[in-house]
Amino acid sequence: MAMITDRVELARRGHNDTLIGRLPSGWAVLGDVQVLRGWCLLLADPVVPSLNDLDDRHRTQFLCDMARLGDAILRVTSAERINYEILGNSEPELHAHVIPRYASEPPERRRLPAWFYDWDAAPRYDPETYSELREALQKALLSTPEP
After folding, report:
1. Alpha carbon distance 98, 61 (integer Å)
2. 126: number of CA atoms within 13 Å, CB side?
3. Of these four, 58, 61, 65, 100, which has the most CB atoms within 10 Å of its CB?
């Protein structure tokens, strides 16, 4: 099984400690590496290869859920804006990165994609360290109305 499929299975069983919550199109989770505090992903469920493999209704739902997760991140963090990325090159299963960007980032980094940060030096997700953030995001998602 691929990484996204594994994560979705863990979320379904309630064993994914990065889990924020269930959205109509999938699972909101915190990133394993917190390059920027609050980096989240939306994992499609059911798992499909790409956005183009969804019909119009499910595609629209996934994109709305992605923005809804971004709204929650904005409310909970001091992020200035949210970057959204759907890649799928190394993990060819639909998932979106929902990335907070901060005014406090070094000026030379603020204009670059977040992928240019040093991932080896970035904090790893830890359930205790990020429990307050995870709980705040859960509450924010619950208070964000569905479209």
Report:
1. 15
2. 5
3. 65
To the nearest whole number, what is the mean pLDDT of the chain? 95
Query: Could you tell me the CA-to-CA distances from 105 to 48, 74, 109, 118, 137 in Å, in that order?
Result: 34, 16, 6, 13, 21
Q: Please give the residue range of the domain that contains residue 133.
A: 3-143
Residue 37 has pLDDT above 80, yes or no: yes
CA 107 to chain centre: 24
The structural domain count of the chain equals 1
Enter the pTM of the model.
0.95
Q: Pairing state of beta strands 95-101 and 81-85?
A: antiparallel
96 in Cβ contact with 84 (< 8 Å) = yes
Q: Supply 137's token pair.
A: 């995001």
Local structure of residue 33 (DSSP, 8 states) = B
Closest-CA residue to 93 (of 33, 31, 35, 7):
7
Instruction: Indicate the residue type of 8.
Output: V
- Give the domain CATH number at 48: 3.30.428.10
Q: Which amino acid is it at 129?
A: T
